[in-house]
Write a structure and sequence with these properties.
single chain; 309 residues; alpha/beta; Rossmann fold; Dihydrodipicolinate Reductase, domain 2; 2 domains; 6-stranded parallel β-sheet; 6 helices; 13 strands; 23% strand; binds NADP nicotinamide-adenine-dinucleotide phosphate
């Protein structure tokens, strides 16, 4: 006996990673179904070395009897089919932005706030934060527990994988076109992405921030602590996979670089003891520095956390 798992958005950048991870981690699934739009019906996706999943149509799929739905079909599609799956008894774990800020839906990063899961049964939906938020809060959590964070200023360097498979195709095609002098028209990104950095992810809001920057602010508050002040600048860079971040953190309590590093190392050790399969964002992949002007007693380390491989 195992779980019956539906992967929704299975042909996309996130969905394919989910299917790969289910197989790699030998998740106890008795059955896995791949769902996407009508365009992809019949497409084949490898599941582990031996199995092939034939994509089915989300629109007509009946979730009755399915235990877990891993959703990443885009916010508008999750908005319709997430509640439909949840009502049929399937626990929906949604990667899109649609449910994240709803008060009765837990927004969970397992290494940071697993206790929030207690509330999931009300709607049968669990939301997953934005990818930039996830890797930042994993690093911030042990520092907040130890030194109480007052303020965070973060700048991101986000790969095109965050814009899905079409974003990755656009970087590939634009880079190739540049070399042979062909014209490039941005479609997924607002400017040409080849050899360029674009400080514009998602749409602009009234205060001049982008929605991506807003997400980092409100999601961090919901997951970690509403009292933390967060200021984010999100930039798309011409890299296929892997987000990086520069995070400037101000604490309430004095913290030296050595203490900050020790707190991050201890958290990594705890996680690897609990499971060999957790994220490794921490002292091992981070550069930690202190403001040159900070006094020895009130040091504010600057943390540059690299995305885990
Ligand atoms: N990429 C990331 O790093 C990342 C990280 C966290 C969260 N997310 C979120 O996850 C979602 C998907 O991202 P992605 O990068 O995987 O995008 P993507 O590569 O463009 O894939 C989109 C997936 O959704 C499916 N889909 C689109 N319209 C559909 C419809 N009408 N009915 C059923 N399925 C439909 C697509 O199926 P077809 O192939 O049939 O069109 C495809 O499987 C987005 O909301 C994104 O914000 C992405």
């Amino acid at each position: 006996m195992g779980y019956r798992v539906a992967v929704v958005g299975a042909t996309g950048a996130v969905g394919r990673e989910m299917i790969k991870t289910l197989a790699q981690r030998e998740f106890p699934a008795s059955e896995v179904v791949a769902l996407a739009s009508a365009r992809s019906v019949g497409q084949e996706i490898s599941f582990g070395p031996k199995q092939v999943l034939k994509v089915k149509n989300l629109e007509t799929f009946d979730f009755t009897g399915w235990d877990i739905g891993l959703f990443s079909p885009g916010a508008a599609i999750s908005a319709v089919h997430g509640p439909r799956a949840a009502a049929a008894g399937c626990v929906v774990i949604d990667n899109t932005s649609h449910f994240r800020m709803e008060y009765d839906i837990p927004l969970v990063v397992p290494e940071v706030n697993p206790e929030a899961l207690d509330k999931f049964a009300k709607r049968n939906i669990i939301a997953n934060p934005n990818c930039s938020t996830i890797q930042m809060v994993v690093a911030l959590k042990p520092l907040h527990d130890r030194f109480r964070i007052k303020r965070v200023v973060v700048s991101t360097y986000q790969s095109v994988s965050g814009a899905g498979k079409e974003g990755m195709d656009e970087l590939f095609n634009h880079t190739k076109a540049l070399f042979v002098n062909d014209p490039n028209t941005p479609e997924i990104f607002t400017k040409e992405i080849a050899y360029n950095c674009i400080p514009h992810i998602d749409r602009f809001l009234e205060d001049g921030s982008t929605k991506e920057e807003w997400k980092m602010v409100v999601e961090t508050k919901k997951i970690l602590d509403p009292d933390i002040a967060v200021f984010a600048t999100c930039v798309r860079v011409p890299v296929f996979i892997g987000h990086a971040e520069s995070v400037d953190v101000e604490f309430e309590r004095p913290a030296s670089v050595a203490e900050a590093r020790a707190a991050l190392r201890a958290a990594t050790r705890r996680r690897s003891t609990a499971s060999a399969r957790t994220r490794s964002t921490s002292a091992g992949s981070a550069r930690i520095r202190r403001w040159p002007t900070a006094s020895a007693s009130g040091a504010s380390p600057t943390i540059c956390a690299k995305a885990p491989p």
